[in-house]
Amino acid sequence: MKPKYDMLWKGMIEEVMADLLLFVDPDIGKELDLERGFEFLDKELAELSPEASTTRVVDKLVKVFLRDGAESWILLHVEVQGNNGKEFPGRMFEYFVRLHKRGRPVAAIAVLTGKDGKKRPGVYEDRCLWTCVRYEYKTLRIADYADEVLAASANPFAAVILVAKEVLLQVKGTDEERDQVLLKQKLLMSKLLNEKAAAFGEQKTQAIKYFLYNYVVFKKPETNRKFIEESDKNSDKNSTTMGIIEQVKEIMRQEGVEEGLEKGLEKGKEESVRILLANTEFSPEKIAELVKVPVALVERIRDELKAK
How far apart are CA 44 and CA 301, in angstroms? Predict the structure, then answer.
């Protein structure tokens, strides 16, 4: 089963929002008061959202504060499927129109995670006879950035892009051959994050690590176990962040098992373990810690799922 890319991106964006803005515009601090933080307007976004699209996306509406004390809204649109849907620019324009009607200024960013990002310009245009409407927005195409440049960057969002780029790897051969290439890349990324931990801070480093663990998945479970063993050698196993816990709980809510997790019912706990095994790359030890069950129970359920 594919990981919950949308929930992982939502949690990651909230963790590194300031870093994302600084990555897009290193001088953004001259306009925005980043130290005042951000307010994520999920309720307002739900009211504004255009009709359902065939393209899987993550939308975030964020309130930011200007240096003069005024408020502004930023529309952050992350496309997590990456296909070249023709409706994409129109969707961006529809958001702008609805925000404009409410008298809200908006700066829009589209983070394109697919291979075909260059095929999609950051503009919507509609012409009829002598009338023309043109709407431009910022695009950030992850495929445009060289791995060497991202690895050398002191910005945590550069590390997020480096993780997301691993999904775009084209590896020919068997599942095992693909896994070996991906294993090498993921271990290098894990090592890089350990080296940058002092600069990024513990919370952001751990959040990006869990993004790496669950966003980039192997074909074979044994490869994942090897990755966890190798990466854990130089990691603080007791470290975690509330953000990743909330991501896991949201996955549970989507699967309808959160009640079992919260109430501690034995049946609910076992179902929670199954959901985590299917939807995340967590080790048995981490799952046991989250659900509060013995590691042996997690391993038994894992073996049962493998046997099916």
Answer: 41
Do 163 and 200 touch, CB atoms closer than 8 A?
A: no
Pairing label, strands 39-40, 131-136: unpaired
Angle between helices 242-255 and 202-215 (to 10 degrees): 30
Contact status, residue 49 vs residue 57, Cβ threshold 8 Å: no
Measure Cα distances from 183 to 9, 201, 221, 280 in Å.
22, 25, 12, 16
Residue 284 structure tokens: 């048995």
Q: Mind listing the pLDDT tens digit for each residue in 182-228?
A: 888 889 998 999 899 999 998 899 889 888 888 888 887 788 778 87
Distances (CA, A) of 101 to 27, 60, 64, 97, 104: 29, 18, 19, 6, 8
Residues β-bridged to residue 291: none
Write the CB contacts of 27 (distance below 8 Å, at least 6 apart in sequence).
none
Question: Per-residue pLDDT tens for 4-33?
Answer: 677 788 888 889 999 999 999 999 999 889
Given a cut of 80, whether residue 242 has pLDDT beyond it is no
